[in-house]
Amino acid sequence: MGNRVLRTMDTIPVPNSSREILLTNVDPDTSQHQASLIVFFLVLQFIGLFGGIIIILTARFYSPIQRHATWYNFMLSWVISSISYTLLLFGGQIDLSGDSKGVPFGLCVLQSSVIYAAPPLSAAAVLGMVAQIWFSVHLTLFKKPFKSQKLLTKLLLILPYVLFVAISAEALAFGLAQPDSVRVAGSGMYCNSGLAIPGRISAGIVAVVLFPAVIIEIFLVVSLRKHWDVFKSPGSNPSRTNGMLHTIIRVFLFSIFGIFALILSVFFFFTIHHGAALNIVISIIPVVAVCIFGSQKDLVDAWMFWKWDWVKKRRLTHSRTVSESDSTLGSPISLYDEKDLPPLPA
């Protein structure tokens, strides 16, 4: 295939232009191919996929806690991400031997489009959940919601999917315009593009979206430290306070990986070949999300089949209250006035 410059419609060369660099088709680095790493990568993606689905279904149908839609968005984003990275497997086109020349173009260009959209989708879902926690803390501290909070919440709920569709369409357009650039990555794990521009757009958007999430978390830490007496005052609701604090701790733990993802997004902005080992690191993030948010007490209780009668009784008794020991973004009664609550998932 060789290194080639893909010319645009205009034939006038642009001196010292970065456009040629962005539109240069780079061959895959097949030295990254290792069958054991491919299997490990797919196992991690399967844990993120099916673990996320189980957690969502359990929270929706078997938990006494009514979670906020931003929490479901967050978990669903990792399910979609894992699906994106396993399309080649579901299409029966994973070849551990390294011979991937027979992959259908339609499947490959589809996956090469959605894998660039998955990171911004997850980043926007993280931002939505962090912002919703900040709304809840603000309401607890100052007894009033943010101005335009309902509108902001709705925008944060749809932002991940707007980004996903837009970036998928952009990457698909590049793939259809330059079909030679669509190929199985050198690692053999998934299809991607040999062009730099889809990856740079994706990495740049991830950085832009995660940056305000980090800033909000800093505000959360400062506010909690400054107003800790409000959370622990005798007049506060222990169930609501404990649930909120447990959720904040979980989000902070996961945010360590979010900051790591922010650093990776900057790295990806400048490179196409980032190595099979780094793909493994990236695939650990959905597993971390499953472990951190799937270990909430109400979900674990629902999986303890020997306690199912007790869980059922608890659900009937506390169907719209927050667990005393562990919660998520909580029930509408505990965190919001009903009129301030954005629509919950059906």
UniProtKB/TrEMBL annotation:
Chain segments annotated as transmembrane: 37-59, 71-94, 114-135, 155-177, 197-222, 243-270, 276-295
Domain of life assignment: Eukaryota
Keywords: Membrane, Transmembrane, Transmembrane helix
Protein known as: G-protein coupled receptors family 1 profile domain-containing protein
Organism lineage: Eukaryota, Fungi, Dikarya, Basidiomycota, Agaricomycotina
